[in-house]
């Protein structure tokens, strides 16, 4: 510990010296910046742009789902032959759902969430001047930016973007003959994802080494705030699982362009007999889900960490069971690697293997339950302030409970036989992974916005944003479970030709209307976000929420290097709220002689 | 024009909301930030309670509205196990759902900020944490136990007397092959697939077992109360045989055959009497397979044994469709003059 702090102190001195000599230009300050706070903002703003695009896609395909027999001439004006006659064509529909999933899972809830808050919070909360490698950190953003450009360009090519679902299972994704979305758009998808994975690996390695090596004096691992632990586990998951997807993506590129047969065997497509024999389409699913399932926790853990912090700060109480929270995150992190095949119960998987995955999958419910009970106990007998961040955190817990419990249905292979790939799955993962993580992200934005921009977001707009989104999320996804119980498959753009699934027409209309409203309110949030950067209420105190963690000991708008003088020393854990009759005791305060032990 | 109005209304709504938000910020500053903060705290605490109550009513209302729209009781023996597992899980998770959601919103409301109360310093309690580790663990053990027990029943070997049907998915439809009188599906090889030569699944005509195999499209017949084993494959991309009424599902993967078996409990006619004459056991493709995925519909007709026998008797083996000249039942001009033995010619054509 001693050496670590010596190193970071030396780094700091060097840095200040450096700072004095060179005046930063616009380009080094805002574009090719190596300051972790600026990189965090870059990730956040790029994430918001992607969230807008991905959300817009969902509005478009919800129009089709809710109103399959209505023509919207404006769609034809905007999208030409993709929406011929004012109706979304099947090709366009599948491109939309594919890109909606890809964009939101990877570009928003992985890069936008981890990229923003790991970058912002790790140095600030552990007491470091910057990341272990600011340069790699900058590269991480620019690889993400490159990935974004490639993915965005794929929307504008003649054959359209990838359209095989965000899970891009071959052979569909491997054969241009099988789907228009598997032509050039698919190559761009794979290249975009390869760049994305490089970005996430550079980021992840940086987060891990920064957390391990650059903590300030006194900041032992068990004194780390929970968001940092969450980011740590997230980074470990990402570093160990993303390379597997990269290998899958590269093998798929080979199959597509170089005539290999990793995933192809015995195929006759459009009457044309392909020579490929001996490959396994299921192999790709193993590679995909070996990342794909940890990915769910890559998305969820940062939200969990931030929610833990925000609930503790705003209930003015220590987080209940800090060590149990750590233990459960650790357990989730380990189990995340051992459950991937629960996405594959009906692929012809060996039933014995299936039963092992049932056991391991349902085991995850135990650490998840511990976390929920700990959050509830944190609220219990607190003195809760309902800032927008706190409300979103409470919303997160509610959604996590609802979506987590439906996971117990799907993780049990017996029930999964019926529910697999139905709307029940869509409802489940949107609640637990999509909306819940979004709530964690919103909570983080509302809570740390003052640190990022030195101003507050407008509270009233924040409350409107929260309530409409919360009610809307449940209205959209709760009834969707029933469609799944009826066996209605996912990704059906028109159910009127079916006897078994056509009974939900009115429900689909309702869901579409609510989707449009919820999307409109997100625009309000985006407006609030950008407006408040320039015109928001100014932050006047160093520690507006009365929080214990180190980021609130920096200046209101910290410069490059974060602390003007020495990095403060840490003497206690970050959750001494309501202790010994005091509202809060910052981590920097030495433990008093008469203070009770926790 | 309509979309113009919609956009105009949206923009107007935005402006109004923004003005309200801006005004409330100023009012807050005028009234004292602390005072207005406490007021909005009370409002939000109350709204959380309202949300809980309306949410619980909503859950009930939603169930009332939709419970009759989900499919009725399972139409297969395995499906009964699936449904039972579903209800066991629903009962256990339902208790947890209501208990935790009520606690969450009730605590939020009850412990809203108040000058009269100080937060309670309560960092951990090992006993409590042990309790809520052990109880979920026990609950999940029960669920895993039931789940695996049923899972092995459903995925176990099909009974010896099961009827075998081969199902092949393709963009965008279903093909079925019955093994014929010998009860054996003949061998096939994908490179033999040729629709023009009437060999849609690539049967190897050399194989004797192929001679009586019957091929049909889109509509499959099975027998009530008789186990049926599906041997499932695909030609082009991955499809999935989804049988919602039977609660069964299995992927159709090119190059890797899969199987599933079940016993239908009600004939299509029985179900039509119950649910109306439009009723059909539908096969849905449950794995994204391209632009026609949403319309990839097949039908299973569950017959009585007599009905099934009559239906299959009317079908000609695919071998005779591919080689009409070999069909003994087809009257031919030269069939009497040149009675070529079927077996002899087999080795020559491929």
Features:
heterodimer, A: 598 residues, Cytochrome C Oxidase, Chain A, two-stranded antiparallel ribbon, B: 350 residues, alpha+beta, Immunoglobulin-like, 2 domains, five-stranded mixed sheet, elongated
Question: How is the secondary structure organized here?
Answer:
The complex is a heterodimer of chains A (598) and B (350).
Chain A: H1 2-21, H2 26-31, H3 36-66, H4 73-79, H5 90-126, H6 134-153, H7 184-213, H8 226-257, E1 268-269, E2 272-273, H9 281-314, H10 322-335, H11 351-363, H12 365-379, H13 388-410, H14 413-419, H15 423-453, H16 459-477, H17 480-485, H18 505-535, E3 577-579, E4 582-584
Antiparallel strand pairs in A: 1-2, 3-4
Helix pairs in contact in A: 3-5, 3-6, 3-18, 5-6, 5-7, 5-8, 5-9, 5-15, 6-7, 7-8, 8-9, 8-10, 9-13, 9-15, 10-12, 12-13, 13-15, 13-16, 15-16, 16-18
Chain B: H1 2-31, H2 33-66, H3 77-110, H4 126-155, E1 163-170, E2 173-178, E3 214-217, E4 219-223, E5 228-234, E6 239-243, E7 248-252, E8 258-262, H5 268-275, E9 281-285, E10 297-303, H6 305-313, H7 318-322, H8 342-346
Parallel strand pairs in B: 1-5, 4-10
Antiparallel strand pairs in B: 1-2, 2-3, 5-8, 6-7, 6-9, 9-10
Helix pairs in contact in B: 1-2, 2-3, 3-4
Q: Estimate nothing, just give the exact number of structural domains of chain B.
A: 2
Task: Estimate percent helicity of chain A.
Answer: 55-70%
SS-based structural class of chain A? mainly alpha
Task: Quickly name the level 1 CATH class of the largest domain in chain B.
Answer: Mainly Beta
Write the CATH fold name of the largest domain in chain B: Immunoglobulin-like
Task: Please report the two chains with the greatest interface, counting residues with C-beta closer than 8 angstroms to the partner's C-beta.
Answer: A-B, 134 and 122 residues
Distance between the termini of chain A: 23 Å
| Total strand segments of chain B | 10
Secondary-structure element order of chain B, N to C:
HHHHEEEEEEEEHEEHHH
- Reported by name, the CATH topology of chain A is Cytochrome C Oxidase, Chain A
Main beta sheet of chain B: 5 strands, mixed
> Which secondary-structure class do the elements of chain B indicate?
alpha+beta
Structure annotation, total helices of chain B: 8
- The H/E string of chain A reads HHHHHHHHEEHHHHHHHHHHEE
* Biggest sheet: strand arrangement of chain B: 3-2-1-5-8
